[in-house]
Amino acid sequence: MAYQFDFGAILPHWKLLLDGVVLTTELAAIGAVAGVGLGILGAWARTARTPVISQLVGVYVELIRNTPFLVQLFFIFFGLPALGIKLSEFQAAALAMVVNLGAYSTEIVRAGIQAIPAGQIEAAQSLAMNRVQIFRYIIIRPALKKIWPALSSQVVIVMLGSSVCSQIAAEELTFAANYIQGMNFRAFEVYFVTTGLYLVMSILLRQILKVFGNFLFERRNHA
Amino acid sequence: MSLVELHAIHKSFGALQVLKGIDLKIDEGQVIALIGKSGSGKSTLLRTINGLETIDDGTIMVAGKKVGDHDTDLLQLRLNVGMVFQQFNLFPHYTALENVMLSPQVVKKQSKGEARKIAEEMLAKVGLSDKMMHYPDQLSGGQQQRVAIARALAMKPRVLLCDEVTSALDPELVNEVLAVVRQLAEEGMTLVMVTHEMRFAREVCDSLVFMHQGRIHESGNPEHVFASPKTPELASFVGGLAG
Ligand SMILES: Nc1ncnc2c1ncn2[C@@H]1O[C@H](COP(=O)(O)OP(=O)(O)OP(=O)(O)O)[C@@H](O)[C@H]1O
Ligand SMILES: [Mg+2]
């Protein structure tokens, strides 16, 4: 007997899905802002003259990039309480995303920094700028501009990766979908709609990042 | 006392000894041309005067103060010593005007108005008042180099170091940059320039320093030095250029 599609079966649960979308959005927003911020700091630290700092950041980056996100999440949520650090599902999910994106964006931003011609940094030095001034005024904007597409992709990946947070019962979109599916057994319809929602969110996020990038890197004084 | 005094400067890159004991005095208002074969250490010497290379041995005195290797010493040094590079090195994300304004604002903490006034003055001096709002990639090489000169001048350095400032330019753009350097020299700016433009060096400079294998091999008044080189190395260098 053929399967009878019934998308109407999801309608009563629209509120749950919406809550899931909102939570996923919140996680993505926190992850993106704090994660990229952390990445910029990390990339800066990688250029530090004190090798210890640079190496510590290197260890962090490799640790995160070579372990699964789910395990990182479990470690934060189930593991850290052993050290007395007890976080809510949402806090743990947000922290995991920040830590994860922070590591990847450290490497991406670092590549952007390395692409800045040494001559520009020397020119800035010869103008008596100090290290912080050089980073802030000379390096960071062109560096981010160079790697903005790669960074944007990574932000989207991490946003989608938030679906894993359903595993610790953070009530984001995938959690909502699982929950609804558990009630009405309409797996096809529920995950079909959920897929669509993720797709829309990804496209929107990409657009937002693109517009933000244009704003950040646009030339304001026109010749 | 001279504005800049170098004493027994030694510098190696690994096993390669590049500067083997350089003594040089730069007086206020002096215009010095640094010449010599490729690899003789000209750029390295200029870069040590600007603190872009650390030295292994010797002392650098600028305006009567010994330059140490602390960051603050270097910043202090660079307030006195400006530099212009072969590759212009303008900041691509700023307009010509912003390139010139940036350091006075962030380093000297000048107000935007003040910095802008000086920047406009310097850009006018290099003949680029009509290009202030252009980005580096909208300027020719000669124009970019003139912005770079204006950018260095806006910090009001007491010495300006120029490392082959016309070597990256198409031949037809060389003169507009040399004209600016010549004007600076006439105004009494203290200049040290590495150059392969021998005619220019002869006309504009009051001292010529010939470097050979990491040492100052011969120096003196350009007319004399060119007319009757004392060492065979300089004779062959000058001869090689003519031939
Ligand atoms: N950062 C560096 N690391 C290693 N070797 C270097 C470095 N910078 C310069 N050298 C070497 O030091 C020597 C002197 O270089 P320098 O650039 O001072 O010569 P130069 O006189 O300016 O030559 P040119 O006329 O070609 O510009 C060269 O052999 C060069 O290869
Ligand atoms: Mg050189």
UniProtKB/TrEMBL annotation, chain A:
InterPro entries listed in its UniProt record: AA_ABC_transptr_permease_3TM (IPR010065), ArtM/GltK/GlnP/TcyL/YhdX-like (IPR043429), MetI-like (IPR000515), MetI-like_sf (IPR035906)
Keyword Transferase: no
Start and end residues of each ABC transmembrane type-1 domain: 21-209
Keyword field: Cell membrane, Membrane, Transmembrane, Transmembrane helix, Transport
Pfam families: BPD_transp_1 (PF00528)
One of the GO biological process terms: amino acid transport
SUPFAM superfamilies: MetI-like
Gene Ontology cellular component annotations, sorted alphabetically: ATP-binding cassette (ABC) transporter complex
Localization per Swiss-Prot or TrEMBL: Cell inner membrane; Cell membrane
Superkingdom as given in the UniProt entry: Bacteria
Residues annotated as transmembrane: 21-45, 69-87, 147-170, 190-209
PROSITE patterns, A to Z: ABC_TM1
Predominant localisation class: membrane
CDD domains attached to this UniProt entry: TM_PBP2 (cd06261)
GO MF term (any one): transmembrane transporter activity
Membrane topology listed for this record: Multi-pass membrane protein
Protein family per UniProt: Belongs to the binding-protein-dependent transport system permease family. HisMQ subfamily.
PANTHER family (alphabetical): ABC TRANSPORTER PERMEASE PROTEIN, MEMBRANE COMPONENT OF AMINO ACID ABC TRANSPORTER
Protein name in UniProt: Polar amino acid ABC transporter permease
Protein's organism: Thalassospira profundimaris
From TrEMBL, chain B:
GO cellular component term of the entry, any: plasma membrane
SMART domains: AAA
Coiled-coil stretches: none
Gene3D superfamilies attached to this UniProt entry: P-loop containing nucleotide triphosphate hydrolases
Positions of the ABC transporter domain: 4-238
InterPro entries: AAA+_ATPase, ABC_ATPase_HisP-typ, ABC_transporter-like_ATP-bd, ABC_transporter-like_CS, MetN_ABC_transporter-like, P-loop_NTPase
Source species, domain of life: Bacteria
GO molecular function, one term: ATP hydrolysis activity
Keywords: Amino-acid transport, ATP-binding, Cell membrane, Membrane, Nucleotide-binding, Transport
Topology term for the membrane: Peripheral membrane protein
Location of the protein in the cell: Cell membrane
Family label: Belongs to the ABC transporter superfamily.
Protein name (database record): Amino acid ABC transporter ATP-binding protein
Organism: Thalassospira profundimaris
Taxonomic lineage from the root: Bacteria, Pseudomonadati, Pseudomonadota, Alphaproteobacteria, Rhodospirillales
